Amino acid sequence: MSETAAGAGSGHAALQHHFVDLEQQKEASALGMWVFIAQEVLFFGGLFAAYAVYRHQYPDAFAAGSHHLSWKIGFFNTLVLIGSSFTMAMAVYSAATGRAKRVVTLLLATILLGGVFLGVKYFEYGEKIRPCFGDGSHAGCLVPGERFDASALHLEGDPGGPAQIFFSLYFGMTGLHALHMIVGIPIIAVIAGMAWRGRFSPEYYTPVEIVGLYWHFVDIIWIFLFPLLYLVGAH
Amino acid sequence: MSQEATTFPRQHYLREGWDLRSWLLTTDHKRIGFLYLVSITVMFALGSFYAALVRWNLLVPDGSLLSAEAYNKAFTAHGVIMVFFFLIPSIPATLGNFLIPLMIGARDLAFPKINLLSWYIYVIGAALTLYALLAGGLDTGWTFYTPYSTVFAQSNVELAAVGIFIAGFSSILTGLNFIVTIHKMRAPGLTWFRMPLFVWAHYATSIIQVLGTPVVAITILLVALERIFHFGFFDPNRGGDPILFQHLFWFYSHPAVYIMILPSMGVVSEIITCFSRKRIFGYGFIAMSSLAIAAIGFLVWAHHMFVTGMAVYSAMVFSALTYLVAVPSAIKTFNWTATLYRGSVKWDTPMIYVFCFIGLFLIGGLTGLFLGNLGTDIHLTDTYFVVAHFHYIMVGGAIMGYLGGLHFWWPKITGRKYIEAWGKVSSLLIFVGFNLTFFPQFVLGYLGMPRRYYVYPDEFQVLNVLSTAGATILGLGYLFPFSYLTHSIFRGEPAGENPWGAKGLEWATQSPPLTHNFETVPVVTEEAYDYASAPKEAVRV
Questions:
Q1: Cα angle for residues A64, A173, B218 (degrees, 5° grid)
Q2: Residue A222 is part of which domain span?
Q3: Which end of chain B, N or C, is less surrounded by CB atoms within 10 Å?
Q4: pTM
């Protein structure tokens, strides 16, 4: 910690009153985001633990449920999300090197890719939820509950209880992940706005950096979800 | 202390304004500490009211005050309010919030707005949960055990679950703020091993808050999702496992006990060294034992589940790990005792609470070993022995520490002195009331009285009457500090910057402190608790 009153960037407009200098402020913000990410890991951890228990207990139902998800769509979304992580990383780099216009462009590209991901997810969810509504048969309904249609999964002699657990995990984990993206996108938009108004410079671009950390974390969660949900029993 | 100590400072954080706006939009950690103090006091009063209902109902064996249903709702409300809305935030959100920046020579916590946000989240969570408790009630117990909570309970489970889920994030954000503040905001010269033990204790607590709370958050959320969207995680009819809920729940809720007790241990370390006029014995051991408790505390959760039919070998491992937690706890107790040795001990109110803490924590901790033991636990599970044990930790430990800390730092927080005689009398009342309430429950539990029943066999009545009488005394005892501390805000004598002659940066600034805490950032040149160079007698102004 710097003892000198005139540390790097003291007197900068973005320096909050309770920090000594920008360096301290930046370190605090970054550590704060890392601690938040640690919290997130444990938050998702509860679901991953449940996944581990039930996949160990019901390997067949998990394989059947997984076969019913389209790995091609999942793979496409994985590429989209990795792309958005790339544009985000480039946005942070551009901010560090002081190219404000490029920061805006790259953040907008990140938002766009995030939107594509969510659009695909919407389509995927719709396919599983739509058959559950309306009268008559609910063939193809994959929402856990009374209307769940286990016949589509071709599990021999299985009423579909464990398969419902698989789809509970599917909706729970991907839903929570999507929620994190829905929270992240407006925040990125706000920061793109700040970049547009020239708030950032190579001395101060902390918000870009910490939203980048958050976005990468959300991507990494998906990197785990994709094989765990889409590729079970794939050969 | 010199002349200036007796006059009340003209500029301080409370003078920033008294209007609602200046309080509800403040980002000053000291004011937010005050907001928390008021909120948790309200919750404590509510939780105590439900405790009174439970105890009065048990005055007679046939439970003539409450119906079985109302009784279930009363003990659930008591547990939910006290655990999630009083004990978890108690010391960290009030004293921790107020003192950590002062103790480390910072102007505020690292994220002042997030600090305010955490209070709002707490209030929203508390409001939702209270609404659920009052409009229809909740009858699952504070533990929300499945499948009762997911399939059978007809009460307000979803709403209460969402309220607790929300409140959890207030605790997470407080912990996050403390961790970053302690890492990045220490004054020049304040190395890790010069930090006050109160700060060490809060560092360990924060780690549990950040790593444990999200697990219970997702677990409670899954209970709500299971009820609303028919997820099958905990439903045996669909191959789900209700025991998984218990694993996830206790993964947080056992370490949560250490969220409650570690800050109290920090308070004890500060007070005992001050009122012994002696450097604390074994500083490094006390600091590291806080971290050890936080770490080992994450590995013992299944001792709440020995009767669920878990594998005998994993039960043995969890039992052994449970015994291991006793080691750092004992290290603390021995070091505190060694601090007293050849010290000039003064019996002021904060110190009386510290003695209460050490004695009661000792009993609470040792009876915990009875329950961590596989053999005795089978006999004692779900009896009043368990109730007595955790109340010795949570009330005898955590609340005694909280009250001790509140009295110790009250002159700093308000700039006023309370009336010492009242402090002594009420601490005695609380000690007697507490023991009369909970000691008979050890006996009741050993004799086989189960917890959470609204009726009991006639032969248990004498002990239950004693317990209810004790609870009444305890309740009265709590009213005293509330009254004379409130009174002192308006009528108390000015305290001066350091009425106890204590060490630490928080005593080096005026009382109440300035909004920015220090006129100049302090530079630390000595170890913590250098009482060797301080006067032998605590200075009373």
A1: 130
A2: 22-230
A3: N
A4: 0.94
